[in-house]
Specification:
- The structure is a homodimer of 281-residue chains.
- In chain A, strand 2 and strand 3 form a beta hairpin.
- The first copy, chain A, has 281 residues and is mainly α.
């Protein structure tokens, strides 16, 4: 329902119209305080409003409440699907694209992937240098090299789990930066328990399965694993919270930043523990 | 519209009802071939049908077409959100849960994460043994250990990118197993191009940035990187296709399987290339 200046003054649903008496004025049937969106409202925001109020359609107005159009629930379902695909791509370091896979040229597919791979490769340079710093430890006990992928891998997996829970929590609006201390408390507890379990499992695994290692070597790997999981869990939880606090998108930024931080801190913990337990100077 | 046995014989929209003449029979206004779903239809499937036909609601019937209820678009929006969260969790190896993060106890959060971490940890045992098999190569050139995280990391990232494109393609119905040869062709091309670029970048990076390495060592890392990316891209693309062909869920299975396959093949390529170029027997 519009006034003579095409400004929105209310909405009438088909259902209300049918229920109305034949001689009722539209004025008496319409809902006056209609929920509206602006033409520059983010589509994800529009989706949230439509969902919250279970509406079939939303009027789009300009600053003067002049009606510009409507968005209907079927447009919104498409938006939700699109945003979903975009989020999943971002988490896997693939740039989003409107073109489908089969339609995309080999060059287009390459362009969506290679920038992220280069960023991640350059970030991994730091990890290489951390290991290089422990060259003498590795020379004294080359066995330590065998467990590098387990340390970085488990660290990465624990960190990704925490980060995913945070990113979803932030996306759905359940978590906010204000909850940071509660979250840190929870993540430290969860990390501690998982770390102890995986640490014990790693020692057992190193003693039982090949390659053959000494008890002290197994203990070094297990102890390191325990600390790595605790640190990775915390980093994984804090990175998205801090990034979103800075007004950046945690889905894009969390990956490379987190992977590097976790690899660097994980390997430092690993080699320091090994130095201590294996008495390498 | 039901017959005397409560079987669905048609549907009438509010819009058609309003447009109808006052003396029309429902029979003449209704849509006879109504799209229906069964009570055991998967909710994701129901969402797809509602989306495809842009319907407001879908009747749910039993085997005899007796009406059991209706599903409306606002239920479906909730379903799409839920499935989205579930998919993202699965890809990050977190079990899904109806409880929100802040509501969940520390033990509940631990239970959602630790099973996956243990599976991934045990799978990584194979990787440890692959490296252990090249102990003499590592002893001859400890420098090779510095680049282990770069090799497994870049392999993992390329593989995840391919796998994500496949998993989304399969989920939206764009890709099917029949397209496997077209996909393999594309992925080999994309992998080759990305592999060559990253290989050259790795050699340059190894020559320019610390730690100091010989040209042959840099060449070994760069060459290996090139092959690792090609193999990882192919494994990443094929794993979800094969898993879904076997009737399993690629979102859950692709992660651990792929990570292990890529680490194992990547490190084997890496050490074999190094053996050849560094002339270690």
């Amino acid at each position: 329902v519009l006034d003579p200046l095409k400004r929105l003054i209310g909405v009438v649903s088909l259902r209300d119209l049918m229920a109305a008496e034949d001689d009722d004025l539209v004025q008496n049937v319409m809902v006056k305080e209609a929920i509206t969106v602006f033409q520059d409202t983010d589509q994800e925001e529009v989706a949230k409003i439509l969902e919250t109020y279970d509406l079939l359609a939303l009027p789009v107005v300009d600053q003067n409440r002049r009606l510009l159009g409507i968005v209907t629930f079927d447009d919104i379902i498409d938006v939700i699907r699109e945003e979903q695909t975009e989020d999943i791509y971002k988490m896997s370091a693939v740039s989003a694209s409107r073109a489908t896979y089969l339609e995309s040229s080999v060059f287009a597919l390459m362009g969506r992937r290679i920038p992220w791979l280069i960023i991640l490769l350059l970030a991994a340079t730091i990890t290489t240098n951390v290991i290089a710093g422990y060259r003498h430890v590795l020379e004294a006990a080359v066995v330590l090299a065998f467990f590098i992928p387990i340390v970085t891998g488990t660290g990465g997996n624990s960190g990704t789990q925490s980060a995913t829970l945070m990113i979803r929590g932030l996306a759905t609006g359940e978590l906010r930066f204000q909850d940071v201390w509660r979250i840190v408390g929870k993540e430290v507890m969860v990390g501690l328990m998982i770390g102890v379990c995986l640490g014990i499992l790693t020692v057992l695994r190193a003693m039982v399965l090949p390659p053959e290692v000494t008890f002290n070597e197994a203990l070094a790997v297990g102890t390191a694993m325990c600390f790595v999981v605790i640190v990775a869990t915390l980093v994984g939880a804090l990175a998205p919270l801090i990034i979103s606090r800075l007004g950046l998108d945690p889905t894009v930024m969390a990956g490379p930043l987190m992977a590097t931080l976790i690899d660097v801190s994980g390997l430092t913990i690993y080699f320091e523990t090994a130095k201590l337990l294996l008495k390498v100077m």
